[in-house]
Design brief:
Length: 665
């Protein structure tokens, strides 16, 4: 439809515009060119430029069919051409080189399908727009259409109606063309429309199949090879040859219309499963003209869009992939469809996540990318080969084994622009509707990308969950109301009971602490069979879209034991330091006693007195050795190694032990 809009606009621009009866159409107030109005003896005609031409068509479309279309311009003459937000977004994409733009949007709570195609300046456009600074090839703006959900079902039907309107309008131009030469506009308006040469020029440019029948319903003109439309070897000579391809009730409907000269426009399903839009009109010389439009794939695509919007897009991950591939291969004349990702740790291979063959899900597989069209797709490029793809990629043995002729593939990109995987469709026949296939792949690619990222995130979360389950550290995640979102086994089994039975309600304490800071902690003891266990729970506030709390539980029993040992060690160190001072003072006293013992031996010859003094000296030496040992124990005295007699040491220790230990030991 848009191609027709653009083509008609181009055709009108090429002719410099068309003229219409000023009594039937208002002059364009923004058109300032010579000869805008032409006056004849009976009527006045006003020039209708391409944009004004299309705009009036769009007003009729909205009035008659409820379908809104707009022409949007970058450099405005008419304020009505100002683009809205969605149209600005489309124009920005056109400036980047995109050829079309479409998406579903919400208008007043209703789901609407938006589509827009670009318009570019051509030489003929400069007649009216040269003063705006345009050059040939510049982006002029675009044509947009808004389809409500109830319009989608009638969209294909509307295409042919609008086309008929365009053809009729072009015929009006030719009427005026011949008037300029014959000076008989009113008398020749209908006859010039029917002139064979003009009719054929228009018919040959039409995308429709046009057949003209005489009053006996024998074909007298074809604009194309109509047999290719029906895929039949039977030659179409009479109108009944077309009717024979319809089911009897549908054929009777058309026969009745022809018999009573009633114009007909409707869709019919033919025996070859093609959906054709048929428009029948009647000429004054009893000729019948038939327009046939193959809308099979447009209808199937619209059905797919409706299914995708209302059903497929609501499924999750693998279910979506399976149903998508099954639907495409069952209803869209595609033999194979699959979603694939890179094989694990190998970017040279593709592994399918879901693949369907002719409506059935089949077993997944892996294959090398080298020498395949998929290799180009994984580099971020949309690829479509209508036919002979196996000949173009002779290294791809699978294409030959599967008898593939047509290929279409699109890369699936993450939100960061990285290639996550590919979506591919394969056909054993030539792809005869490439635009629809391209639109389809681009429609489903964002949903596939979203689901592939979900699968990736789920795998990451599963891995983290497995690691956390093996951890000795307990993890608990709560929402801002302390409802549990996640907890691992270590948290529940080893701490949860005592944790919830702390004397002061832990939640109140945490809330009070976290009101002013981002973390808090609780320490508590749990009595178990193996002894008291000490636990430390740290609570961190996680700020984001929602406030969550992360609880990390650790068993600190060993830390507590080490802490007690450290305290004991510090006590011993303090005792050692104290004993070192005492030993120093004690040695001073022993030195005095030793000196007096020596003086006694020097000043007396009494044997008994000398024996007493010797015993005093021996005891002092034993006490001195004891202090030396104490200093060694406290590491305040340098250590020396020497050869000793263990018997002497044991006997000396025995003497000390006898005085120290009780007699019952």
């Amino acid at each position: 439809m848009f191609a027709r809009d653009v083509t008609v606009r181009k055709f009108v621009a090429k002719l410099g515009g068309v003229y219409g009866d000023i009594e039937k159409i208002s002059p364009n107030p923004y058109l300032n060119v010579p000869n805008r109005e032409i006056h004849t003896d009976k009527k006045t005609f006003t020039l209708i430029n391409p944009s004004y031409f299309i705009r009036n068509v769009f007003e009729l479309m909205q009035q008659d069919y409820g379908i809104k279309s707009r022409i949007t311009s970058l450099k405005l003459k008419n304020p009505n051409n100002t683009p809205n937000d969605i149209e600005k977004e489309a124009i920005q994409e056109f400036e980047k080189g995109k050829k079309e733009f479409y998406k579903f949007i919400n208008i007043n709570g209703e789901r609407v399908f938006f589509y827009m195609a670009p318009l570019f300046i051509e030489e003929s456009c400069l007649k009216c727009h040269n003063d705006q600074g345009y050059k040939v090839g510049d982006l002029r703006g675009g044509i947009s259409i808004y389809l409500r959900s109830n319009n989608l079902q009638n969209f294909a039907s509307l295409i042919n109606k609008v086309e008929t309107f365009f053809l009729s309008t072009i015929f009006l131009f030719f009427c005026y063309f011949f008037y300029k030469y014959n000076k008989k506009v009113e008398e020749n308006l209908i006859s010039s429309r029917l002139k064979e040469e003009s009719f054929r020029k228009i018919a040959e440019k039409s995308n429709d199949f046009i057949v003209k029948f005489d009053k006996n319903l024998k074909a007298v003109y074809f604009n194309k090879d109509i047999e290719s439309l029906f895929g039949s070897q039977k030659k179409v000579e009479y109108f009944k040859d077309i009717l024979d391809m319809l089911e009897p009730p549908k054929a009777e409907t058309i026969k009745e219309a022809i018999k009573n000269k009633i114009k007909l426009e409707d869709e019919f399903l033919f025996k070859n499963q093609k959906i054709l839009q048929i428009k029948i009109d009647f000429l004054e010389n009893d000729e019948t003209i038939v327009f046939l439009t193959d809308i099979t794939y447009q209808r199937l695509y619209l059905d797919f869009l409706e299914t995708f919007t209302n059903k497929l897009s609501l499924l999750n991950e693998i279910d979506f992939f399976n149903e998508l591939n099954r639907y495409i291969t069952k209803y869209l004349n595609i033999d194979y469809s699959f979603v694939g990702i890179f094989a694990e740790n190998n970017f040279e291979k593709i592994r399918s996540l879901s693949i369907a063959k002719k409506g059935e899900i089949i077993e997944n597989f892996e294959y090398d990318l080298k020498g395949t069209p998929c290799n180009n797709v994984t580099k971020g490029t949309f690829c479509l080969y209508k036919k002979d793809v196996a000949d173009l990629f002779p290294e791809d043995y699978l294409l030959k084994e599967m008898n593939i002729t047509g290929y279409a593939g699109i890369p699936i990109l993450s939100h960061e622009g990285n290639v996550l995987g590919i979506f591919v469709m394969l056909s054993e026949k030539e792809i005869t509707y490439p635009e629809i296939i391209e639109n389809l792949t681009k429609t489903v690619a964002p949903k596939i990308a979203s689901d592939l990222e979900k699968i990736k995130y789920k795998k990451t979360i599963e891995l983290i969950s497995k690691i956390l389950e093996k951890s000795e550290i307990g993890i608990l995640i709560c929402d801002e109301k302390f409802n549990t979102l996640y907890q691992n086994t270590a948290f529940y089994e080893k701490a949860i009971k005592s944790f919830y039975n702390i004397d002061k309600p832990w939640a109140e304490k945490i809330i009070e602490d976290l009101r002013y800071k981002d973390d808090s902690f609780i320490e508590f003891i749990e009595d178990k069979a193996e002894g008291s266990q000490h636990y430390l729970i740290t609570i961190n506030k996680l700020k984001g879209v929602d406030v969550n709390y992360l609880f990390i539980k650790q068993n600190i029993t060993n830390y507590k034991k080490i802490e007690q040992q450290l305290l004991q060690s510090q006590k011993m160190e303090a005792i050692g330091l104290l004993s070192a001072g005492i030993v120093h003072d004690f040695n001073n006293i022993l030195t005095g006693i030793l000196n007096y013992g020596n003086l006694i031996q020097l000043t007396t010859n009494n044997p008994e007195t000398n024996s007493y003094s010797q015993e005093i000296i021996r005891c002092v030496e034993m006490a001195s050795n004891l202090t030396k040992n104490l200093l060694l124990f406290t590491k305040k005295q340098p250590q020396e190694t020497q050869i000793i007699d263990l018997n002497i040491i044991v006997n000396n220790i025995l003497k000390i032990i006898k005085r120290t230990f009780p007699e019952n030991i």
